Amino acid sequence: MAEQTLTDKIVALCKRRGFVYPSSEIYGGLANSYDYGPMGANLLRNIRNLWWKEFVEKRPDMVGLDSSIILHPMVWKASGHVDSFSDAMIDCKECKTRTRADHLIEDYFESKKEPIKVEGKTEDQMDQIVQENKIPCPACKKFNWTKVRKFNLLFETSIGIVPESESKAYLRGETAQGIFVSFKNIMDSTRVKLPFGVGQIGKSFRNEITKGNFVFRTLEFEQAEIEYFFDPEKTEWEPLFENWKNSMWEFVTGKLGVKGENLRWRAHDDEERSFYSKRTEDMEYKFPWGFKELWGLAYRTDYDLTQHENFSGVDLKVVDSSDGRKFLPHVIEPAVGITRMFFMTLLDSYREEGEGEEMRIYLALKPDLAPYRVAVFPLVSNKVELVEKADQVFKDLSQIYSVGWDDRGNIGKRYRAQDEIGTPYCVTVDYQTLEDGTVTVRDRDSMKQERVALEELQSYIAR
Ligand code: ATP
Fold first, then answer.
1. CA of 24 to the centre of ligand 1 (A)
2. Taking the CB of residue 306, how many other CB atoms lie within 10 A of it?
3. Which of 42, 54, 33, 51 is nearest to 363 (CA)?
């Protein structure tokens, strides 16, 4: 499979089968915005639920949170987002294309097979690299750039009818800050004790202007973030960091079923890492255009709580009950995009078998992820007994699973449609069902068909 076209195939499949549509398409679309269709909504929810189950519900040392999208504007001042949450942009004076300077440089060196990282470099340093290497505009191929300039990524909005300067607010650029500002309330209102973590899933917003790569980078996206708080005098951060790395790896390979060979860890060097972080590593997935960040893991020390204490004037310290010592907990932060995981999962599970007209396309999704765990078909739609029986099967299975229904066209077509959305099993109710209470169950991956008694159907599907 030619690598670059895999993205095109996924984009086409997503549109064709109701996973992802260009947003506001009847108005010509909106750059870097997408809508998740019926199958996409199911897949997203399954990924989100698995994450929540694994990292919040199954751990006694974790609790959940659902904070506001619009927080007090001072939150973003304290966090550093207002002053430095920006991308370095550069404009082509010839064709007016605006692009991220780091991407321009990295893509250029990637194409020469000499990959470099420019995160952490100043605007001047980036200007210098562009000039020295005479990097051309990727759109018009000319070399006539403006200087590199910073643009803030926070989305501004305004609240109510108070005078303009006072009403300015921001849509959150990450979910993590909501955790820090609720830290004291969580400590005061629950039975947690250090070390413990707070997990949160929700929409974040960034004024991203770089186009392309489908839902990899969008204006609004869903994040799943954890702040894991600990006492730096009682808990060693290095083993904790390693534990998180293992849990993240296990989630992506074990729960999402992604191949380990398509994943790697990449540690940030001193230049790239934020000044307050003692260690940052990214889990990267091999996207068709190269290894890119999927999930970041950062030891952020007590930077955020210190900032919020300073800006709010509220004491956020905790007390060690054994010796009365007051301190601000440190944090390790695993931060991932649910929508980026969604894209990775589709890329990793895409399969083609055979060629030409005969080609079979299917998504080898883990059953827990598939938009429908099972689909039910009455053999024909104009035989009342068959439809009624199939409806009963649908009702029974849907007590437990998300179940698809299809009574249109021939069975082969229905299989093809379910294959492309990754449904592990298709159940056909036919004339024999009315006689002996068995149905045909067809397996997505092997395409094998078996007769299964209705009483055994649930346990068969649960395998
Ligand atoms: P990148 O370098 O790709 O812009 P980042 O380092 O700014 O990402 P973080 O702020 O660490 O990202 O956010 C945590 C996670 O949120 C990322 O690992 C990624 O999975 C996801 N993410 C960040 N920005 C976007 C976006 N614009 N669209 C979709 N997912 C995103």
1. 23
2. 14
3. 42
Q: Ligand 1: does its nearest atom lie under 6 Å from the Cβ of 296?
A: yes
d(CA 38, CA 171): 26
Residue identifier of the C-alpha nearest atom 10 of ligand 1: 174
Tokens for 27, please give them. 């108005």
Spacing, Cα 336 to ligand 1 middle (Å)? 7
| Ligand 1 touching residue 221 (CB < 6 A) | yes
Question: Which atom of ligand 1 is nearest the CA belonging to 341?
Answer: 20
As a whole number of angstroms, the distance between CA 460 and CA 463 comes to 6
- Tell me which residue has its CA closest to atom 24 in ligand 1: 217
Q: Does the predicted TM-score (pTM) go above 0.85?
A: yes
- For the residues of 245-294, what is the DSSP string, one character each? HHHHHHIIIIIS---GGGEEEEE--TTTS-TT-SEEEEEEEEETTEEEEE
The two three-digit tokens of residue 433, written as one number: 């069902």
- Residue 76 exposed, middle or buried by CB count within 10 Å (0-12, 13-18, 19+): buried
- The pLDDT, as a whole number, for residue 130 is 95
To the nearest whole percent, how much of the chain has pLDDT over 70? 98
Mean pLDDT value across residues 156-175: 84
* Cα of 25 from ligand 1 centre, angstroms: 25
Minimal CA–CA distance to 155: which of 129, 137, 173? 173
* Backbone region of residue 13 per phi and psi (left: phi > 0; alpha: psi in -120 to 50; beta: other values): alpha
| Beta strand ranges found along 268-385 (DSSP E) | 279-287, 290-301, 318-319, 326-327, 330-337, 350-353, 360-363, 374-378
Any atom of ligand 1 within 6 Å of the Cβ of 273: no
Q: Can you tell me whether residue 98 is helix, strand or coil?
A: strand
- Residue whose Cα lies nearest atom 26 of ligand 1: it is 217
Amino acid (one-letter) located at 20:
V
Query: Residue whose CA is closest, atom 2 of ligand 1?
Result: 293
* CA separation for the pair 341, 45 (Å, rounded): 12
Predicted local confidence at residue 119, as pLDDT: 82
Place of tokens 């392309």: 212
Computed from CA positions of residues 335, 340, 342, 344, in that sequence, does the dihedral angle turn out positive or negative? Answer: negative
Written as six digits, the tokens of 103 are: 């991407």
CA distance 438 to 160: 62
